Amino acid sequence: MDQVGFPELRMGSLEVRLAESAAEIDWAQALRYRVFYNEMTAVPTPEMAARHRDFDVYDTECDHLLVLDHARADGSGALNPDCVVGTYRLIRRPAAARVGRFYSSDEYDIGALERFPGEVLELGRSCVDAGYRTRGSMQLLWRGIAAYVFQHDIALMFGCASLPGTDVRALAQPLSYLHHNHLAPPELRPTALPERHVSMDLMPRGEVDAKRALVELPPLIKGYLRLGGFVGDGAVIDSQFNTTDVCIVVKTDLVTDKYYRHYERSSGRDAPAA
């Protein structure tokens, strides 16, 4: 939650920055609960349902990126839970070590990613309030991720991304498209754990309608693909969240390059070394 070196990123009344207190993390957990459990009908644990919060052991160890709408602040300008309108959870090696593993390791063998020589970052628990799912809000959130990647010299990002529903037959087009066109190279390829592995090779390459598949892919996954992202081998059914998960891997060259150019334009001076 160290803000040192993190730039001020604003767009109108919106600001993106890291959570600065336990209270702000609690606000992010409240937003996650509303989106995942109220809107997307995930199944909460009894404790989550009682508290109306989505939480786990990683939340106290990692960084939380927040999109805050200052227009929702009270008359004195003080922030409140309603001000958090977007969030992303950011887990680096030290945080994973404190917990004992990365979150994705519950679904995937990520040994190849853990052995990667550079700094790595696991992304997860991404959500945006229904009233803020606009291009501008998402761009601001991605600028925050780019700034974090730049600040910590992250070389590789990864994490589980979800397609809605658990009927893989209904998801045959997008899953097959990902498998045939965006499979990670062997040296960076996570593999779904044997007991959870669901084949993504559901249709022959020649039968996949790429345009239809891209329409059916969630915007977040398409965003990763635009950054040159790959997918791991195999999907995983997440019954709690009513989703089918794929593991995304993104080398951050494009992310830092775009941020570098933005920093130079906005500051009018040379960007700092990554």
Question: What do you see in this structure?
Answer:
It is a single chain. The chain starts with 8 loop residues before the first strand and ends in a 7-residue tail after the last helix. The radius of gyration is 19 Å and the shape is globular. Strands 1, 2, 3, 4, 6, 7, 9, 10 and 11 form a nine-stranded mixed beta sheet that branches. Strands 5-8 form a two-stranded antiparallel ribbon. The chain is 34% helix and 23% strand. The protein is of the alpha+beta class. It has a single domain (9-267), classed as 3-Layer(aba) Sandwich (Aminopeptidase), CATH 3.40.630.
Produce a short descriptive summary:
This protein is of the alpha+beta class and 274 residues long. It is 34% helix and 23% strand. It has one domain (9-267): Gcn5-related N-acetyltransferase (GNAT) (Aminopeptidase, 3-Layer(aba) Sandwich).
Key terms:
globular; 9 helices; 34% helix; alpha+beta; 11 strands; disordered C terminus; nine-stranded mixed sheet; Aminopeptidase; 274 residues
What's the alpha carbon Rg, rounded to whole Å? 19 Å
**Whole-number average pLDDT?**
90
Structural class: alpha+beta
Secondary-structure element pattern, one letter each? EEHHEEHEHEHEHEHHEEEH
C-alpha end-to-end distance:
19 Å
Q: What is the name of the CATH topology?
A: Aminopeptidase
Regarding CATH, which class?
Alpha Beta
What share of the residues does DSSP label as strand, in percent? Answer: 15-25%
> How many strands in all?
11
